[in-house]
Amino acid sequence: MAKDTILLDHGAGGRASHQLVQRVFARRLGNELLDPLDDAAVLAAPAGRLSVSTDTFVVDPLFFPGGDIGSLAVHGTVNDVAMRGARPLYLTAGFVLEEGLDVAVLERVVASMAAAAKACGVRVVAGDTKVVGRGQADKVFINTTGIGVIPEGREVGAHLAAPGDKVLVSGTMGDHGVTIMALRGGLNLEANLQSDSAGLQGMISELLEACPNIHTLRDPTRGGLATTLNEIAATAGVSMELDEEAIPVGEGVRGVCELLGLDPLYLANEGKLIVVAPPQEAEPALEVMRAHALGAQAAIIGAVGESPAGRVWLQTAVGGRRILDMLAGEALPRIC
Ligand code: MG
Q1: Which CATH superfamily is domain 8-150 in?
Q2: How far is the CA of 214 from the centre of ligand 1 (A)?
Q3: Ligand 1 center to residue 269 CA distance, Å?
Q4: pTM recorded for the entire structure
Q5: pLDDT tens across 125-145, in order?
């Protein structure tokens, strides 16, 4: 019997497409908003402003310790929507499939996506599938768009970071990036590496409830902590001063970074949060994060200064001080 694989027919919009949608997608992702499978979903408009974000996931390999492309495609977009202080509600999902893909692999990815969406409290309300010929894509690419609602009076953004603010992170840096790099490099490391891929909407909601004056939330994904802080500093027209020793890095990540000459501050995270908070809310924010399952290793890592605008300084562990610049170039493509 021929192996059950994706054929070009599955993307043609005919009978095979319908069967694939029913068998793989509707079965796992279905809900009353998606189930009509009409040209568009119809949603009630919530009161307040919307936060919308879109991201395309091309991670290689598809499965890795701590997650897979399906859960990552949910977490990545849910987190971006939540970073503006929104409660994520809806996702759309677009799939690009390579001809010849094992249907069982796709089913595993979609099941993981469904579980992640459920855990994050979001519903997939619209979707699309295209199939391209062998070699024209690599197995599965997924685009997700997220929609969330921002409660009345809430204002969170990079432009609000202000001199005197404290800079916090919710946990260790570099876990996702180093895990993918090690897998891709075929490194057989005894280090217990695992992606930190996780939905941050729950922790953010607790954080903003307890600390309503938080200025900025950002997830340090591609380019890592260093690049994201540079972006915040440039947007807000402020400087930042970080204490290297205060920045949490896991032992396994540190070991691999030393081995490969990598800097964990430039590696991607997929379940971590940067918080810029006014000084009176720094300690309370730290407490909320540390009490949360995803923030046990949260830390205050620095402060916002006035000038020079856009500059991030790092007080190094050996007592020096250097400029922490943005990531130059791409260390490794297809990390997310
Ligand atoms: Mg982001």
Answers
A1: PurM-like, N-terminal domain (3.30.1330.10)
A2: 17
A3: 10
A4: 0.96
A5: 999 999 999 999 999 999 999
